[in-house]
């Protein structure tokens, strides 16, 4: 029923004549004046409503007929579609793309144990990923996809997932139980990888997450060594912390030495990976000691560097063929290969460890070289240790090992999304003795890692290397026994640095004079300020 408003209370005759009725009892006056019989006044409440039942029923039947016709048309279309081949969904959901990218780029090459082995399936988790780990994996994967496609919308989505992972990580760290869980440490390490993937401006975010992960390791204490997973996560986290300390010219924290003393009970020290772990820490400590010591003892510095170089030289002695690689000659220039040969490794872990050992030896040789130059610049020159260096030092190129046929192997090693080779490449390219051709090769590798893996940290280090190259060629770098490999703090690329080395600011006697400098044209010096 439809409400029609307040009806007139006059008689029917007056309503038809559209005049005002006086509603006189017994009959209105106006009907009497005209000689009409007044029909009276309608006081029924039905006058307030109008019956629309018939109209509504007609509309319903019409609407139902339209719906039936539309349904019949849809059914006919469905019958036609069933005779066509099924359509493929080429675009997966965004979350699936992110997780797939993560597993493809950051889990490839993990070949121990093989997926076909009993041990792999015995220890494989079947209850899915922890929500915190899954969120960080998704953020990291979407960031990589966004970098590869240079899609600003995907980058915003990666940032949203990253902030969600940060909130979840903060909640886990605030919990007395979850703060010591393996999943919390894994998530923080993945957050540092996100910064390396996503941040194309600086290393500060990566450095902060590495420091946070190292504090979690400290909090976990000795109990983390009770499981193989705990030991592996400790080795991974402290390895990142070592690189961070080297970049900031800081010694390793004291708690690392205490934890390492306990860790040695669980490790095979003869394994080259474990041997390098401890060598890397000694390298960072030596570098920090040289930079922060109040006085310079050149002979002691050279002896310490030679001792560590000998350890590095014999790390692979007595190992099996899994640690050998093939040297493949390549006459003519081949893109992606520097020089006239390349190496083929049996596993990604072998290539990774070899490269790590090599860049540590580059550190040692740079320290020894700079110490010799500083000794030659003193009055009188300090030359007594030079003969020992010639006898004890061994060129990097002499450590090559031959190992059978290489017909069915590839020269390219993909290692954990490209992260493992970044710092080694940068160290090789930032040396004062690096040739322009080798620096160009390193920059080309950084560009390839950025394009193929979506790792923006390669872009940061490439910018830093270009700046470092300009500083060396422009004579803006002072001579140091342990030089800063990264540009200064006020540079556009890398914001974190430690204190500058004290070598080179003690006086002119530590610097090379013009005569000696002419014999070493690869290094340029400026007069230090007091």
TrEMBL record:
<dbReference type="InterPro" id="IPR053175">
    <property type="entry name" value="DHMBA_Reg_Transcription_Factor"/>
</dbReference>
<dbReference type="Pfam" id="PF00172">
    <property type="entry name" value="Zn_clus"/>
</dbReference>
<dbReference type="InterPro" id="IPR001138">
    <property type="entry name" value="Zn2Cys6_DnaBD"/>
</dbReference>
<feature type="domain" description="Zn(2)-C6 fungal-type">
    <location>
        <begin position="10"/>
        <end position="38"/>
    </location>
</feature>
<protein>
    <recommendedName>
        <fullName>Zn(2)-C6 fungal-type domain-containing protein</fullName>
    </recommendedName>
</protein>
<dbReference type="InterPro" id="IPR036864">
    <property type="entry name" value="Zn2-C6_fun-type_DNA-bd_sf"/>
</dbReference>
<dbReference type="InterPro" id="IPR021858">
    <property type="entry name" value="Fun_TF"/>
</dbReference>
<dbReference type="Pfam" id="PF11951">
    <property type="entry name" value="Fungal_trans_2"/>
</dbReference>
<dbReference type="GO" id="GO:0000981">
    <property type="term" value="F:DNA-binding transcription factor activity, RNA polymerase II-specific"/>
</dbReference>
<keyword id="KW-0539">Nucleus</keyword>
<dbReference type="GO" id="GO:0008270">
    <property type="term" value="F:zinc ion binding"/>
</dbReference>
């Amino acid at each position: 029923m439809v409400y029609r408003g307040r009806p007139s209370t006059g008689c029917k005759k007056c309503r038809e004549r559209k005049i005002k009725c006086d509603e006189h009892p017994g009959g209105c006056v106006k009907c009497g004046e005209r000689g009409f019989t007044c029909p009276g006044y309608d006081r029924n409440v039905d006058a307030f409503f109008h019956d629309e039942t018939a109209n509504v029923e007609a509309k319903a039947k019409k609407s139902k007929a339209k719906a039936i016709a539309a349904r019949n048309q849809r059914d006919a279309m469905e019958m036609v579609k069933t005779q066509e081949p099924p359509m493929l969904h080429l675009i997966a959901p965004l979350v699936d793309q992110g997780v797939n990218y993560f597993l493809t780029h950051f889990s490839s090459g993990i070949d121990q144990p093989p997926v076909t082995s009993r041990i792999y399936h015995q220890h494989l988790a079947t209850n899915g990923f922890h929500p915190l780990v899954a969120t960080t994996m998704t953020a990291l994967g979407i960031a990589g996809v966004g970098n590869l496609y240079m899609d600003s919308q995907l980058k915003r989505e990666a940032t949203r997932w990253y902030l969600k992972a940060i909130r979840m990580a903060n909640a886990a760290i605030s919990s007395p139980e979850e703060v010591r869980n393996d999943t919390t440490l894994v998530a923080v390490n993945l957050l540092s990888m996100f910064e390396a993937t996503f941040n194309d401006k600086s290393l500060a975010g990566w450095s902060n997450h590495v420091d946070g992960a190292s504090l979690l390791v400290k909090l976990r204490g000795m109990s983390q060594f009770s499981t193989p997973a705990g030991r592996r996560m400790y080795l991974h986290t402290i390895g990142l912390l070592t690189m961070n300390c080297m970049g900031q010219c800081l010694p390793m924290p004291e708690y690392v030495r205490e934890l390492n003393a306990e860790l040695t009970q669980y490790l095979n020290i003869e394994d080259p990976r474990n041997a390098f772990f401890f060598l890397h820490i000694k390298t960072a400590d030596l570098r920090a000691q040289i930079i922060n010591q109040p006085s310079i003892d050149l002979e002691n510095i050279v002896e310490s560097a030679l001792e560590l170089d000998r350890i590095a030289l014999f790390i692979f002695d007595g190992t099996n063929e899994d640690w050998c690689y093939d040297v493949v000659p390549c006459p003519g220039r081949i893109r992606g290969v520097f020089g006239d040969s390349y190496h083929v490794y049996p596993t990604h872990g072998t290539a990774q460890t070899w490269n790590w050992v090599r860049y540590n030896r580059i550190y040692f040789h740079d320290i020894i070289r700079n110490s010799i130059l500083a000794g030659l610049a003193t009055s009188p020159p300090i030359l007594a240790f030079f003969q020992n260096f010639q006898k004890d030092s061994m060129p990097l190129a002499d450590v090559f090992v031959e190992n059978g046929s290489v017909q069915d192997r590839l020269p390219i090693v993909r290692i954990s999304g490209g992260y493992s080779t970044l710092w080694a490449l940068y160290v090789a390219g930032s040396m004062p003795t690096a040739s322009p051709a080798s620096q160009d090769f390193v920059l080309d590798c950084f560009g390839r890692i950025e394009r193929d893996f979506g790792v923006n940290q390669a872009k940061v280090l490439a910018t830093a290397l270009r700046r470092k190259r300009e500083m060396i060629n422009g004579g803006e770098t002072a001579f140091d026994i342990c030089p800063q490999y990264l540009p200064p703090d006020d540079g556009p690329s890398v914001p974190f640095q430690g204190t500058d080395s004290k070598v080179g600011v003690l006086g002119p006697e530590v610097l090379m004079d013009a005569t000696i400098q002419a014999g070493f044209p690869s290094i340029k010096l400026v007069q230090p300020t007091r």
